[in-house]
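We store chain and fold; thus.
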Amino acid sequence: MYCNLIISHHCMCYELGYFTDEEVEESLHNIFGSEMIREFWEKTRAPRNSTTPYGGQMRKFYEVAELAYLRQPLKA
């Protein structure tokens, strides 16, 4: 639940224009440094991808967030 609140807060700030693409990606890149947040993102990727309409701000946020997630080094 806590992980969802963190991601949702960033999404809201992005949708309201408080974050640029670059700012939200950098912030999420730091947040995805947490194993707990990464695990949450991994578990919720498929449902989020299948239920979020294309073309909106939320979809754009998820695309930027996915880029930030993928920038994380793989854990051995």
Observations:
- Residues 13 and 19 are 6 Å apart (CA to CA).
- Residues 2-70 form one domain.
- Residues 35-51 form the longest helix (17 residues).
